[in-house]
Fold Complexin.
Amino acid sequence: MAGYIAKQLVGKQLEAVKSVAKDTGSKGPTEEEVLAAMNAAEEKRREKFETQEEERESLRQTIRDKYGLKKRDFLDVTDPNSSRRPSLQRPSDASLHSPRHQPEEDQLSNIIPPVLREAASKAVEIPQRLFTEANEKCSTM
């Protein structure tokens, strides 16, 4: 019985503390505060990387001075007189479907010996001849 009474007394006090905590804790940071914090963090990150890059560049320069190297000059894309070769244009659909394979076949036929060329032509002619003879003998009504 004493345990029950103690539990009731402590329970009421605990709930009172919880309700007070809920009232004060419900107010959170506003969107403006969050955006300001994010912008500040981004600016801090940028400054950090800028200082790191400056340190790296100073190290690079000391190495260049030590070994007598020259700083690389990157190509300027806007410079029309650059030594860079212009990229090729993409082929159009018409040029893709044009019969460009014929000269390759002609070159291939020049490489093949005449005996093989004759055998290849006969291999093509025989089935064609059989087909035409079969069509002549068989007629459909």
User: Anything to note?
Assistant: Residues 77 and 85 are 11 Å apart (CA to CA). The chain has a mean pLDDT of 78.
